[in-house]
Amino acid sequence: MLRCKQVSKALADKKYWELPLHQRIGLRLHVGLCVICGPFNRFVMLMQDAVRHYLQHEQSNPPPENMRLPPESKERMKANLHKVEREEEAQ
Q: Best exposed site among 10, 19, 30, 66 by fewest CB in 10 Å?
């Protein structure tokens, strides 16, 4: 059986539905039975499921063209994010 640390690391490193079947089964078994990490990791899995469903919905129902950010706005946002990251690394 997996240990709490292994389960938490697996959920932090990768989306659980991308894990091989035998690892998913072990992970679900541990999370279902563990009173220590179970509630937290069940919540993490729930959030990952919500994100997966949202992404599937977005891929099958893209927003109309008039609701998308213009490419120049996206580039400006990326540049600002990189600037903030560099400032944080410098501190």
A: 66
